[in-house]
Design a protein that fits this description.
The complex is a heterodimer of chains A (377) and B (304). Chain A is an alpha/beta fold. Chain A is built from twelve helices and 17 strands. In chain A, helix 6 links the parallel strand 8 and strand 9. Classes of the chains: A alpha/beta (377), B mainly alpha (304).
Amino acid sequence: MVCVLLFAAAAGAESIKVGFNIPLTGDIPKVGEESKFAAEMLKEDINAAGGLEIGGKKYPLEFIYEDNESKAESAVSAALKLIERDDVLAIVGPNSSKQAVPAGQVCDDNQTPMISPWSTNPDTTKDRPWVFRAAFLDPFQGPVAVDFAMEQFGAKKAAVLYALDNDYSKGLAEIFRDDFNAKNGAGAVVGFESYSSKDQDFSAQLTTILAAKPDFIFLPNNYNEVALIIKQAHDLGWKNPFMGADAWGNSELMALCGDDCKGQYFSTHYAAAGATGETKVFIDRYKEKYGYEPADVAALTWDATNLVLKAIQNTGGLSGKVRADRKAVRDAMAAIPEFPGITGNMKFDAEGDPIKCAVVVKINEQGEFVFTKSVCP
Amino acid sequence: MLASIIQNLFNAFQWGSFYSLIALGYTLVYGVLRLINFAHGDIFMVGAYIAFFIATAILGMAASLPGWMVLAMVIPLTMILTAVVGVSLERIAYRPLRRKGAHRLYVVITALMCGLVLENGNLALLGASRKSFPELVDKVVYTVGDLSMTNLKIGVVFSAILVFIFLHFIVTKTKIGMAMRAISYDKFAVPLMGIPIDTVIVFTFILGSSFAGLAGLLFALSYPILDPYMGAMIGWKAFIAAVVGGIGDIRGAFLGGFLLGFVEILVVAVFPSTYRDLIAFAILMTILCIKPTGMFGVAGTTKI
């Protein structure tokens, strides 16, 4: 660290500031922690090598982490703080769509490039030329879940329980419902129940769902709620499977959910168990450094941050004027045709959304997320 | 259809038990001190965390112990330690204000702040990560037809009823209960009769907080994910339940808690869950409009 500082001072170079708008407290603190750890790892790598080389000159990296408390309104103020107070060149995050949709508007209005590692709701990037993402979209993930459930469980009837005040959960639930009904006939989704984020008791909703006798329950929810819902469903006598989405993929899920989650499936961005190549290198390093296996959000933050850094390099040189440099970075980001990330290859469409594959993983008896199937667009 | 109605009644009994247990604490303190102890929901949260640490410590030292034996040790320890927290709050925050003769309004504001201090203190000390409560009770699911019930749910409902009977007995049949009612009636005349007012107030806080601790433990067993803000919303709602029942009256708190549990569960069962709080609280407001002192309240007189 000291030698990095000395080097920076000796070179007289200004640092490259990148902001992180992530949930370090609130409902999903583990998501913020993993994002931060992945970014720290990347920063140490690059600073140890003397900094990021742009147009023949090396700049040290400076990452600023702003806590958005897993709240939409705090994500907006965190974005403003990073843009106005810290003069960052670009923002990575927010992760959850609930925060990424409003924060995306702020970044777009203030002409600051933003990339969300984990948000899958289409509204995050829609009609926002300054906003990008590293994750696939819910209109892709929803049908993946529908097809998998029909194939794996032979499902004809489904039920959905979702969080009404969470853009991610609500959006994905609606996409799932429409697609399942389209493939199995109207009325195939026999239960479509909601709750709000602070709820702890889901017994009334689950009773309604169970009375409709679906073949499985789709839960597009955050990991902390998933653990409660599955336990309560089992208490009510539910024995059929659940199917989840990428917000399940967190190292804390098994700690909170335990045996109840074993044997369930969810769609996600990558499977840590059985990974190869660059992905395996990343997972092993992360595990050694921080003591647990990184979830998809850590890998996606790694990819998203790398994309930003690549775009900064592609500008060919910075002017030192924040507004002009932000514009250059945005243009360079939009111009990246294809990017080989550790969560798969990404091609970007006109909206700034990557076209990439999804995987379905199974939670095995040891509580590991095991690769089951890969689905590409 | 009938099966899901009955199932929802079971669900409502369990959910209402937590409101009842917490509402009892509000009502006791209000009955004696005329103070709405807004920190009570957070004492419930502290109780859940204390139960978590005791349970993991015991399991860490003697992993082979059966769950019921651990539970038998966790229950009294949690209640004692939560009572210590409640009494400390009374000592640190409320008693100095009472000695200075501060207006009730300032004590209520102090209580609100104490709650925030507990929440954020927890966040600062333990971090934002959720805690998962260990499964002490081997959960058994009893299924009859389409109905399901766990041994845990039955235990929770019975605990709430037992606590109610116990508190009702203390307040109406014992000497210290009589002193509590006397203070509620006239706290300036009572010391003249040789009743140690501070002791009675501390006893009230011990009762209220220890049962909040029990509620925290039972809640953690039923919903085994703990976070620093878990007590805020449920505390507010239990307060409303106590008001609807007629705050200051033990029967009122008990029935008010169950009433709120029933209304919430039944609203979700019939309407989209979006309307839960809207309809539930509209119903409660209607009750208060018809009878502003709550179900068991009597206007103007003092009660506990």
